[in-house]
């Protein structure tokens, strides 16, 4: 029992140590990626929509930014998860809202629960997707009026903007590689070797 406690303490101490290491270069690129990804969406919002219509910049994009710019090797941060998770969750959220529009205590948990199961089933699990589904059923104003257009814009269009920015900033240095799929890594490696010759 004593050995188990000591081992658990050692492992915990190591994990905490690794998680608190500060790599300033990584943090710099994470900052720039998130700044430009969210910044582009916010810029489009502020220049193409009325100030009262905050529909293009949805809260779940902030959570996605944490994953795709700050935890780029996470399976939950990969492009399939980012786009698929948000789009499927938006579809679920809008569908649930159309079926049960006025019973929030039922529509909110149904939207989130169904979106989780659908993301698991399609292997597109992306935690911010749950928020995307919840936004579809709990928002007031313009978002409910959008209906299934909510899936196209802001959700799909915002995801594409975040992804393009992630592909640029997460591959700008040799230490960062996104997505983590081995086929994409081989392609980047070939391109990097070709440019250095």
From TrEMBL:
Q: Where are the transmembrane segments?
A: 28-49, 55-72, 148-169
- InterPro entries, alphabetized: HPP, TM_HPP
Q: Which PANTHER family match?
A: TRANSMEMBRANE PROTEIN DDB_G0269096-RELATED
Show where the HPP transmembrane region domain sits. Answer: 22-179
The species this protein belongs to is Chryseobacterium flavum
Instruction: Could you list this entry's UniProt keywords, alphabetically sorted.
Output: Membrane, Transmembrane, Transmembrane helix
Is the keyword ATP-binding assigned to this protein? no
Write down a Pfam family by its short name: TM_HPP
This protein's name:
HPP family protein
Question: Which parts of the chain are coiled coil?
Answer: none
Q: Does the keyword GTP-binding apply?
A: no
